[in-house]
Design a protein that fits this description.
The structure holds two protein chains of two kinds. Chain A is mostly helical. In chain A, 57% of the residues lie in helices and 0% in strands. Chain A is flat and about 55 Å long. By secondary structure, chain B is an all-alpha fold. In chain B, 74% of the residues lie in helices and 1% in strands. Chain B is built from 24 helices and two strands. In chain B, helix 1 crosses helix 16, helix 7 crosses helix 8 and helix 9 runs antiparallel to helix 18. The termini of chain B are far apart. Classes of the chains: A mainly alpha, B mainly alpha. At the A-B interface, helix 1, helix 2, helix 3, helix 4 and helix 5 of A face helix 8, helix 9, helix 18, helix 19 and helix 20 of B. Chain A: Pfam families: TctB.
């Protein structure tokens, strides 16, 4: 009804739903269908204690959610088969004309995930420095040493601000850096 | 009278120097973060959440009030000063302000936005003050079936009716509801969808959902398509001495009031808050404008900034009515605030006004205070906001990632949450790429568990008879209103689409020189006294100079 999705050949900001975009949309909707089926199936295995007081047990809501998701994703599948696709979000810093830079996304994502390892092993300030320098460089910062300096400052400032201002102690050092002895 | 007394008590709390300082910090941070491009109000609140973790409840709530209003206002500065097509939702808001800035009237646009926000925010807060206790008193009588009906209405309006595509919204809502399901079922103690993980047994913190989807998801999305080259910032050229011409005041005050009248009621009903309100206000102003002023629409008409900006802030206050009195969030931002309240052990709802009067009234009082601080701060500090807009994008988004990590880690001090945040961020990334709205997901994640609890309570009360759900007059009314909402949204959606298409066509055609000419012409025709005054300041000649040169982009 209020669908503003464009026909595939319409000249849109999304450059008229190119092939890769259509494939991606289809894969995503397929995953949604798979997820909803998964929800419906695994909802049957939720244990419901016998003689629970309510008529509606622990399974009913999961069934409803799975059903709703299945309904919506099948409807989307049909809409997409008929050529109605979504439009990528706009934004102040988003350039919809140019293609997706997967390398940048990958590096930024890895930089963020590195926190999983760096926080316990190296401590918060160093973890932040690595995240910041990695992400900023991937995003196109020109001077790599500057990103390290700014990252280190952010790490130390948040560490101190949380300790002093909010009485929360972020791990200053980690397993590998405990010898620093702060 | 009782209300007034309670409000005064609220002021005595909120005006204590310590809390006043917190309100100040909240407004400052909220505006500063809200001004940053790519950061909307929801992300502002989500990113600043960790700051309040160890404050006492009252202080935290006062900081929140400041962040909320500050973040709402900050966005308008961005859209006025950044010469890039913003989000499609804010296109109408940004349009006129951006054009004004390109003509060298950015100061006037910012001023009418700031003052309009103040006027609207204050009136709307007064309405909240008057309405809140009444709604709360009435809402105490609502039973679980009524609440369930209300939540269904909220789900449908937020999920299906607000975005560009109903099914995309419902799919997003369903993902959110699923995320809300993960964890231990409170009633039976059974683990659901935890994949055998003990850490998932406690469920996924809504803060993680918000930070993951808004902060990390947005950062990843921008990373994939970062606009290259220079930051197209429009400089503020005119001095502050003549930030609002006499005619600007004359043209602004009515839109301020009309914006408030449109924004507040829309904020209070689950109809999507600010988005719809700003659009309606813009359409109204455009329709009501006469003669030359009407011609100026699309070319930098001040009414087109004054109205929507007021509507935006009035809606922000309106959203607090259902949030505080019913415990029902109608926007993503409200959902995050609700989850923050819950971490402090406060459950917004009808009993909040009775159980925690000191807290509620301190919050409301600090809304007034925050609003005042906002208008006092914003105009003088505009230079600082401009500096913020110039932050190189790699640093800005790397910084957002750091704060997202901080928010995830500081909530429970476990890196497991970093992993959860990453998964949510990736989901948010693909949702943005494929045009799914984010807000329904957040609303679903927070409201889903509450809806389930109410449904099960209702079924218990009704002896398992599903008819019990539609027995009370209120629930019948609520379900009936869905039909009205659907009709309204179809009408609104069609109008909006037409509008945006027309606006886009007009915008593409108009040039800065033509805009300045229209503006100068209007100035020309104003009463003699003001014209003289204006030429004394050199306004028309300045406008003339600018018309020769292309808009400065640096």
């Amino acid at each position: 009804m209020t669908n503003v999705a464009q026909a595939p050949d319409a000249p849109t900001g999304a450059s008229g739903a190119p092939r890769s975009f259509r494939i991606e949309s289809m894969v995503f909707v397929a995953l949604l269908i798979a997820l909803s089926v998964g929800i419906l199936i695994s909802a049957t295995t939720i244990r419901e204690p016998v003689g629970s007081a309510s008529a509606i047990g622990a399974r009913a809501f999961p069934y409803a959610v799975g059903g709703l998701m299945l309904l919506a994703s099948v409807a989307l599948l049909i809409a997409q088969l008929r050529g109605k696709y979504g439009e990528p979000d706009g934004g102040e810093d988003v350039d919809l004309e140019s293609g997706t830079s997967w390398v940048t996304v990958g590096i930024v994502g890895i930089a963020f995930l590195s926190l999983l390892v760096t926080i316990p092993y190296l401590g918060w300030p160093i973890a932040v420095t690595i995240l910041f320098a990695g992400a900023a460089t991937a995003l196109g910062a020109k001077r790599w040493w500057m990103t390290i300096i700014v990252g280190a400052i952010m790490g130390i400032v948040t560490q101190v601000a949380f300790a002093v201002g909010l009485n929360l102690s972020l791990p200053a050092t980690g397993v590998f850096t405990s010898w620093i002895g702060i | 009278m009782e209300t007034l007394e309670l409000l005064l008590q609220g002021f005595t709390t909120a005006l204590q120097p310590e809390y006043l300082l917190y309100a100040f910090i909240g407004v400052l941070l909220g505006t500063a973060v809200g001004v940053l491009p790519g950061i909307g109000p929801a992300m502002t609140v989500a990113l600043l959440l960790p700051l309040t973790y160890s404050l006492d409840v009252t202080a935290a709530i006062i900081v929140f009030a400041g962040i909320y209003y500050g973040g709402m206002y900050g966005g308008s500065t961005t859209s006025i000063l950044l010469n890039t097509p913003g989000e499609s939702a804010s296109i109408v808001t940004a349009l006129e302000g951006n054009k004004m800035a390109r003509m060298g009237r950015g100061a006037s646009a910012l001023a009418t936005a700031a003052i309009g926000s103040f006027v609207a925010g204050t009136i709307a807060t007064v309405l909240l003050t008057l309405l809140g206790p009444i709604v709360a008193r009435w809402a105490v009588q609502l039973g679980p079936a009524d609440y369930f009906a209300l939540m269904i209405v909220a789900f449908l309006t937020v999920g299906a009716l607000l975005g560009s595509s109903a099914w995309r919204g419902i799919a997003s809502l369903a993902i959110g509801l699923f995320i809300g399901l993960i964890g231990t079922d409170l009633l039976t103690g059974q683990a659901r969808f935890t994949f055998g993980s003990a850490q998932l047994g406690d469920g996924i913190d809504v803060v993680l959902v918000a930070v993951g989807l808004f902060a990390l998801g947005e950062a990843l999305y921008v990373a994939s398509r970062l606009r290259g080259g220079q930051i197209p910032l429009i400089p503020i050229t005119k001095g502050w001495r003549n930030w609002m011409r006499k005619s600007d005041w004359a043209r602004s005050w009515k839109p301020w009031l009309r914006g408030t009248a449109i924004g507040f009621p829309i904020g209070t009903i689950p109809a999507g808050g600010a988005d719809v309100a700003t659009f309606l206000s813009y359409a109204t102003e455009r329709k009501l404008a006469k003669g030359e002023n009407k011609k100026q629409f699309g070319n930098g008409a001040i009414e087109g900034v004054a109205g929507p900006e007021s509507a935006n802030n009035a809606a922000a206050a309106g959203v607090l009515v259902p949030l505080l009195t019913l415990g029902i969030p109608t926007t993503a931002t409200a959902a995050i605030i609700l989850s923050a309240f819950q971490t402090y052990g406060i459950q917004p709802g009808p009993r909040l006004f009775e159980d925690q009067p000191v807290l509620v009234w301190a919050l409301i009082a600090s809304l007034y205070i925050g609003n005042t601080i906002l208008v006092v701060l914003n105009l003088p500090l505009v230079g600082m906001w401009v500096k913020l807009l110039q932050i190189p994008r790699p640093y800005l988004y790397a910084g957002i990632l750091v704060f997202a990590g901080l928010g995830a880690f500081a909530a429970n001090f476990t890196v497991f949450d970093i992993g959860v945040l990453f998964v949510l961020g990736v989901i948010g990334f693909f949702l943005r790429r494929l045009g799914f709205p984010i807000a329904p997901l957040v609303i679903g994640a927070i409201l889903g568990p509450m809806a389930e609890a109410q449904l099960r309570k209702a079924m218990q009360l009704g002896n398992s008879d599903p008819m019990y759900l539609v027995e009370s007059p209120f629930s019948i009314f609520a379900y009936g209103s869905i039909a009205v909402f659907i009709g309204l949204s179809i009408w609104l959606g069609a109008r909006r689409k037409k509008y945006e298409a027309r606006l886009a066509a007009e915008t593409a055609a108009s040039e800065t020189s033509a805009m300045a000419a229209v503006d100068a012409e209007i100035l020309e025709h104003e009463e003699h006294a003001e014209h003289a005054e204006a030429s004394e300041r050199g306004a028309p000649s300045e406008a003339g100079d600018r018309s020769d040169s292309p808009p400065d982009t640096r």
